[in-house]
Specification:
It contains 18 helices and 17 strands. It is of the alpha+beta class and 556 residues long.
């Protein structure tokens, strides 16, 4: 068996490969730290755009030739290894072989192996792990070995742009440049107004979609994609759970790099099956025709907005028949037909038209309950720790949750959560200093720590000046829906995506740091590394020793 470039505890060990001929140097592993990533990214971006353009024009022969070039591309190999071994949050998680690739030398060896020694590689089974879901249930994930993850990233770069030119306009899950907020905004724009044309909603969920996709139907949809055989091997590789091997006859494992795009390929055509029709020309091009339902899909969650209950039932029946050959079916426990006046939940949001005939979208009660429980559990676990540890643990949670819900009606929810956090913080301080008075605790841990706000009830550390941010500090900003049919791989829309990125202020950094990031092109002026990149666990910090207005990369 071929060895694979990977690491266990930081030492290089083994790795895999892809396709035959090579596009790039063949003189052994490169110097990982000296790679010009901007040039690498530009090469991959241009090739993705060429694949997209050919697919959009219907030139399938050219698409296949360009995909073969992408699979052999040295730049694609380097970027793929960087993605799975350096950028992804799961980069430290090993598959069944226990290998990772965390050190620069290991990444270079993995990239060399992926590009030059793919012919004899046989995909390994995935490792089954479980993560908690709502309601106390668990979601199964399949973790591939680092070798397969790198190969899947290489294949993804060749497969994705072809389908980006073909995917339906209101498919928002696991696609570049799109996300949950686009799906929510699409629902809002369809249902807003005093008399919406589509007040009835089919709120549907597919039962175990990733685990039940029919392999034959999926592979047939891929056509003559050059790496189709490799995808077939991944689908049939099997699962290892508690040391027991189980073959996979259906489904694609959640956790694989290529699994999300395979899910989108399997579900492509759902809008057409539901009877959605769009204007193709004129000023209304891209909008749904009168009397047509509107289907918004995020991965295996979908909402069909219809003009009547009867139409919603017809859409459900048509989709049920369309899903059956793909091995899929509705989860009847989570599928319902409701009126906008009654409301429904989608992706953690509650959508409802109120008595004043206004459509309001808010964080769902279930989402609020989960964040409260998580914050309480974190504070219980932090008993015995200092204030600095509390701030470091909770700030990322508060930032992330408030950023997710910043585009909807969240002001009241944010205020209630701030009150909840205040009580938790005071309770934590009282536990840490049981013999101290209330006034002492308030003076020690609460004050006007944030210099930009007149709030003296901020929890903080008087020694370091660090403080716990509040949910309400996140400004409510309506999300701008992505243009219908727009893709970052479309070269004709390069200026559109550049403008969109410039307007999207990252809410995870404050305004001062954001302006410094823009002025520095997002890079550290000392080492040139991207300041928002996971590499070396760098974080944003104002380095006063480097001169005024300088943002540098610093090790935590």
């Amino acid at each position: 068996m071929d060895t694979v470039a990977g690491t266990t505890g930081g030492t290089a060990q083994a790795a895999p490969p892809v396709v035959g001929a090579v596009n790039g140097p063949e003189d052994g592993p490169c110097d990982w730290l000296s790679i010009d990533w901007r040039s690498v990214e530009d090469d991959v971006r241009r090739l993705r755009q060429r694949i997209f353009t050919a697919s959009q024009a219907g030139d399938l022969k050219r698409v296949r030739n360009l995909q073969k070039l992408m699979l052999r591309s040295r730049a694609n190999t380097l970027l793929s290894v960087r993605r799975v071994a350096e950028v992804n949050t799961g980069r430290k998680t090993a598959g069944i072989d226990g290998n990772t690739a965390l050190l620069p030398q290991a990444k270079a060896e993995l990239a060399d192996w992926v590009q030059h020694r793919a012919e004899s590689w046989k995909p390994k089974p995935v490792k089954r792990v479980y993560i908690p879901k709502a309601g106390g249930r668990q979601r199964p994930l399949g973790i591939p070995v680092i070798a397969d993850r790198a190969l899947q990233a290489v294949v993804l770069a060749a497969l994705e742009p072809e389908w980006e030119a073909r995917f339906e306009p209101r498919s928002y899950g696991f696609r570049p440049g799109r996300g949950c907020h686009d799906a929510i905004e699409s629902i809002y724009l369809t249902g807003k107004g005093p008399n919406p044309k589509r007040p009835w909603v089919l709120d549907a969920d597919l039962a175990a979609a990733f685990d039940r996709i029919d392999h034959e139907h999926l592979l047939a949809s891929l056509g003559r994609f050059p790496a189709r055989g490799l995808i077939a091997q991944w689908l049939k590789a099997g699962v290892v759970e508690d040391g027991w091997f189980t073959p996979t006859e259906e489904g694609t494992p959640q956790g694989g790099v290529v699994s999300p795009v395979l899910m989108n390929v399997a579900l492509h055509g759902m809008e057409q099956a539901a009877g959605v029709r769009y204007h193709e020309t004129g000023v209304n091009a891209g909008s749904a025709m009168r009397g047509s339902p509107v289907l918004v899909r995020y991965a295996d969650d979908l909402v069909a907005m219809c003009g009547s209950r009867e139409q919603a039932e017809q859409v459900k029946a048509r989709l049920a028949g369309w899903l059956a050959p793909r091995g899929l079916a509705f989860n009847e426990d989570k599928t319902q037909i409701v009126h906008l006046d009654d409301g429904f939940e989608f992706l953690g949001f509650h959508v409802r038209r109120h008595r004043n005939r206004k459509l309001l979208i808010k964080p769902s009660k279930a989402a609020g309950k989960r964040i409260r429980e998580r914050l309480a559990a974190e504070m219980r676990a932090l008993r015995g720790s200092n204030a600095e540890a509390v701030i470091a643990r909770l700030n990322p949670i508060i930032r992330g949750w408030s950023a997710y819900y910043r585009g909807v009606v969240s002001t009241a929810t944010f205020a209630a959560l701030d009150h909840h956090v205040w009580k938790l913080a005071y309770k934590w301080a009282k536990y840490a200093h049981a013999n101290k008075s209330r006034d002492w605790i308030v003076h020690q841990y609460f004050g006007a720590f944030n210099p930009h706000r007149r709030d003296r009830w901020v929890f903080g550390n008087r020694d370091s000046g660090a403080y716990l941010r509040k949910f309400a500090w996140t400004k409510i900003v309506r999300h701008q829906l992505v243009k219908i049919g727009a893709s970052p791989d479309d070269p004709a829309l390069a200026e559109y995506w550049a403008r969109r990125r410039r307007k999207t202020v990252i809410p995870l950094v404050d305004k001062t740091d954001w302006h410094l990031l823009v002025n520095q092109n997002g890079a550290c002026p000392v080492c040139g590394a991207l300041l928002l990149h996971a590499h070396c666990r760098r974080r944003l910090t104002a380095d006063t020793g480097g001169g005024p207005g300088l943002l540098r990369a610093r090790e935590p």
